[in-house]
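Quick start: what a row looks like.
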Amino acid sequence: MFSFMKNSNTMTYLNNLISILLLSFLCTLTQAQQVNDINLNDSIPSNGIHYATKTFESTRVLNGHSNELMPEGQLDFRIEHRFGLINQGSYEFYGLDQALIKFALEYGIKDWAMVGINRCVIDKMVSGFAKFSLLKQSSGTKIIPVSATVLLETSIIGTKWDNPDQKNAFSSRVSYVGQLILARKFNEHLSLMLAPVWIHRNLVPTTTDNKDMFALGVASRYKIFSMASLNAEYYPVLSQSWDHQNTSFRNALSFGFEIETDGHIFQLMVTNSVGMNEKSFITETMGNKWKDDLHLGLNISRSFSLK
């Protein structure tokens, strides 16, 4: 168990806070329209092929991407928050007095392709990505055991140069992400995901640091009732070297509660990372997940039909 759980006062405050937030979500849930999921056991269509749907509810598991794409003609407006440390206590409202924010617009060009752009307060980063579906899990006359999706992302740091008088190359601000997302929906409750990811940074702190980083994301979703699920994800970095000047980097770990309402998806999480882009949360997480370095996070997604 996490060591912060040994502090009974912290746990009592945290439990009360989460209870209030969950109660607020559940009140919204009771007023929402029922959404009917397409079941893996539904009747087979005329071509004999049945595709799995809603392996994950959102295009994100929590911090990281899922295999899901926005449908063609659908625009997703996303707001994400990561708050301060929970262990700061009631004076800082358990971190809620401090917030980092990210805004994003994401659009489905086709059912198999989507694009997105976002702005995050961390490093004043602007990121753009494209996401493509390669395979869809199916049963019947065509059996494909997993869904496969590819993510390509570019990020640009917008903060001022530390030394503006020296010659600074724009390319030093740029990083790239490539990710293969493999996901399987086992039944109406359980979905699992495996996601190897490559991150390239054009500029690193020292010559001994790797410009190329590799990690292996693992994630799960367990649906507890028709419009709510429990999500978890973990991104262990496989590269031997991160930043030799900073030995505090940790692997990103997150647990969350997800609720779908009519047109909205809410994700409430506990995480050791404040990063909201792959470069940030995979390679630059500072929180020790086994200690008190945990944060609350909130993702809000609202979709619109432009078609």
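That is the whole record. Residues 3-84+100-305 form a domain with the Porin fold (CATH 2.40.160.40). The chain has one domain: 3-84+100-305.
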